[in-house]
Amino acid sequence: MTRVRVAPSEATGLRALLEEPCATKCAGAYDALSAVIAETSGFDAIWASSFGISASRAVPDMSLLTMTDYLAATAHMVEATSIPVLADCDTGFGSCANVALMVSRYEAFGIAGVCIEDKVFPKMNSFVGDNQALVTEDEFARKIACACATRRADDFVIVARTEALVCGAGQAEALRRARRYVDAGADAIFIHSKQRSADEIMQFLSVWDGYAPIVLAPTTYSDLHIDDATSCGVSLIIYANHTLRAAVRAATLTLTEIADKGSSETVESEIASLADVFELERLDEWVALDA
Ligand code: SPV
Ligand code: MG
Known about the structure:
By secondary structure, the chain is an alpha/beta fold. The protein is 43% helix and 13% strand.
């Protein structure tokens, strides 16, 4: 019998995944069940999405929830799965002191790594509006150095995300910032873009010198194939919000139909069975513990 996980798993293999020659598939999750679905669907890592966790509380992704809220949701994902969970920690929830507290708490909960981004706090989701602002390169490099100095295990991964392209600061700035963050200790660079095509990212990748592993989230340039990402040297590709968006669409269609038709008969064959849910919960293993 597979052991039921009642304590955080020891999913520390994120660093090894970043070093593999092929890009690793990572799915965004917003709670434990969506994380389990990511694992059982064939993904190798989980992104604890700030957009997803915020949306699961029906609030926008604009630094409204606290570190404790995000940590609780992320810890539930770790507890329920056995693949590495990379936590989207926005700006690090404040100053360097906030980043230090964050790293010590996240590491203690068995989370494989954290990602922080170089926008000002409070931050707004990358796809909202055109006037997003960056902190200075120095300030963010200090946050990265602080995160690295705080971690206990070398295995705990610190990802630096630059929003230079999202903020319209241009390729030279993005490249300079990315190199600086690696020099400050970052294990990988998440380069983000909100363009509808992958051209902007491809341009960045063409001049990136393999200085550190690269992380992408092709949310807006969804036609980027993982094999092409691998050919361009990408290490981790994050499908950041697809569990959330799939759930929103499916629940809306199902409930609208039930409300319109006055019974759930016509939706039964379209939705998961109770047995499907029991399997995701590993019901048999839990019941066996009491047998
Ligand atoms: C998130 O999932 O919260 C992200 C990735 O930061 S994205 O939404 O693509 O900006
Ligand atoms: Mg986010």
